[in-house]
Amino acid sequence: MSRPAASRPPSSRRPRSQRRPGSRRAGLLVTIPAITAIALVALPLVAMLAATDWRHLGAHLTNPVVVPAIRLSLITTIATVALCLALGTPLAWLLSRRDGRLWSWIRALVTVPVVLPPVVGGVALLLAYGRFGLVGQPLDAATGLRLPFTPYAVVLAQLFVSLPFFVLAVEGAFRALDPRLLSVAGTLGASPTRVFLRVALPMTLPGVMSGAALAWARALGEFGATITFAGNFSGRTQSAPLAVYVALQADPDAAIALSLVMLALSIAVLGLLRGRWLS
Question: Cβ(125)–Cβ(157) under 8 Å?
Answer without folding.
Answer: yes
